[in-house]
Amino acid sequence: MTGGSQDDETGRERRDPDALIARAGVRGDPDQDQHFLVDDRVLDRLPSYATDAGFDTGHVLEIGAGTGALTDRLLAVADEVTAVERDPTLAAFLREEFADDVDAGRLTVIEGDALDVELPEFTCSVSNLPYGASSEIIFQLLPHERPLLVMVQKEFGERMAAEAGTDDYGRLSVTAGHYADVEVVEPVPKEAFSPPPAVQSALVRATPRDPEYTVPDDEFFLEFVTAVFTQRRKTMRNAVRNTAHISGLDDPDAVVDAADEELMGMRAGNVTPAQFAALAELAWEVGEPT
Ligand SMILES: C[S@@+](CC[C@H](N)C(=O)[O-])C[C@H]1O[C@@H](n2cnc3c(N)ncnc32)[C@H](O)[C@@H]1O
């Protein structure tokens, strides 16, 4: 194998991403969210964002394995990898290219849509996600309470990691932050991919932890937050009243009456997750959620 990069820890040579694409005989299809990572430097340091943070790499789940450039790097740090890939041609290629690891029981390739297949128990997930489904995939993974390192659209990653009072803060920040500490660890330029996506990318690390507040019911809290952010330009007073059909409150006026005046005059973008939680608690008690 030529053109690959050297791994410091094992001395094993990493597969060259361009050679993998050539051997697979494919061109990434943007309509299928296929943008393969071809920058060796990004690929080689990517797993270190997981290992440096102490992620348990006993069983790494990779969603959207493509031609396997990242799979190859993950096999160097993990005991076991499960790779999910929707494209049948790529899934077959992965099984053939990594036949030794498959035979050794270190790699399992699951062909199918990540949103439909049964996922195994995993200790962490490291993925260059299909951007068209990144939100759904992340919100399917977060409740597993396992660390995630995911490549996403930069803007999406910034919204996940945003603090209250900033332009990027919204439903995504509160709902992701409900499960994990979220940080953007590295912006990644378009040129790192083949074919390059239309947008810039970023690597996001989500480390699970309990939130600093309690909620009456996770599902209700997340629906309540989603509901009021659909009216982010309105005051909370109006947002709570106008979105009862989404939050499922039969008596939103009772919530507005019982809540703190000052909070009801704020816009959702300035309300902290802990304030949302307290309000959801109140709404659960007096708003007659259905
Ligand atoms: C951005 S590419 C990443 C490929 C590879 N991991 C890399 O870094 O070069 C995303 C991959 O996910 C696959 N994919 C797209 N939608 C998917 C889905 N819903 N479930 C599983 N795989 C999907 C695509 O076929 C593609 O191979």
Automatic annotation (TrEMBL):
Q: Which SUPFAM superfamilies match?
A: S-adenosyl-L-methionine-dependent methyltransferases
The record's section on SMART domains has: rADc (SM00650)
Q: Which residues bind S-adenosyl-L-methionine?
A: 35, 37, 64, 85, 113, 128
Q: Name one GO cellular component term.
A: cytoplasm
* Alphabetized UniProt keyword annotations: Cytoplasm, Methyltransferase, RNA-binding, rRNA processing, S-adenosyl-L-methionine, Transferase
EC number(s): the record gives: 2.1.1.-
Which PANTHER family did the record assign? DIMETHYLADENOSINE TRANSFERASE, DIMETHYLADENOSINE TRANSFERASE-RELATED
The entry sums up its family as follows: Belongs to the class I-like SAM-binding methyltransferase superfamily. rRNA adenine N(6)-methyltransferase family. RsmA subfamily.
**Full protein name:** Probable ribosomal RNA small subunit methyltransferase A
- Species in which this protein is naturally found: Halorientalis brevis
